[in-house]
Amino acid sequence: TQNDINVKLQDRIDNITYWKTEVDRQLQKTDQEIANLMSSKKQLEQAHVATQLPHEVATTCLKHREGRLSIDLVHDDVEVQLLKEVEMIENIQALLQQRISESDRQLSELRHCKNNLEMDLKDKCTSYGLDSRCAGLHNGSLGMSIHNNSVKIDPKSATPVAYEAFSHDNITNAEKQRVSSCRQRELNEHTMHQTSNDLHKQAETVNESFRIRTQEMIVAKTNLEENLSQTILEIGSMNENIAALKEAIRLKDSPMKVAHMRLNTRSYRPNIELVRDPVQYGLVEEVAQITDSIEALAAKLHESEAKLRNLESNKKALEEDIAVKTNSLNIDQSQCLRLRKTLVWRRHEINF
Predict the structure, then answer these.
(1) Is residue 110 a contact partner of residue 181, using CB atoms and an 8 Å limit?
(2) Largest Cα–Cα distance in the chain?
(3) Does pTM top 0.85 for this prediction?
(4) Per-residue model confidence as pLDDT tens digits over 63-77
């Protein structure tokens, strides 16, 4: 009988050894999967943090562009793309946070499996030690004694089938959760890859919109500056013309005074000497001619002064338009695009 028990003990030890090895192997795999998923989760967290700068840059650009003036304060393609970029980043942040939460839940499941495996392994190691000790006992062993209370079958003890089912279930659950964890890591990787591509593509779209818009403003500003230069030349020419007209009118003053003085002087001729002679007719005609000439020059002067006022008004409008374009270029080039350049090196620094 003792020999039969020895054989059964050895079989039991072998059985425990098998399950202990299997449980330990599953525990190591589960430990590794926990480490892998934690690494994946850390990458998600880094990716989430990496979206903060692009979001800050996009919102800051929108804020800067509120400083555009007059007709340039328009809902242009740059603003459309910036708003789209902000919305995309916020959606990406929400998606990354969702993946982080999913990873946390999966880690909890893995740790639960790990805990079950660790307890199972601990119990098997204890059982292995106890049965190995029993297998080493023989009739000549020291310290032997009778234990009447142990001669019974504990009704709460597990059957061999339940014993194997317990470890089998622990192993099966661990394998199932590792498969789920692997899928979660693949989903995390896909999400990071796709969102990174989407974010970079939209950033390029925004930058291209800025490039087109600034080029349009540069062309418009250049045309305005050319028109301003031409207007300034015309103002100068018009001032010269006005000065010449005023001088011409001034030069008519002396001949007019001479003619009037002669007419006035001759009006004192006495008696029959006050004759309507050719001189009198000539002087009256001269005064009429000079008057007509002055009136014609005055009309031209009035017309030229009106044109000058229009030119001055156009000059002011052009200067205001140039100031608007200069302000817009300063916002888009010196503020927004310079700020967006910080995203270039960040893109290579953080690969998510």
Answers:
(1) yes
(2) 186
(3) no
(4) 999 898 988 888 889
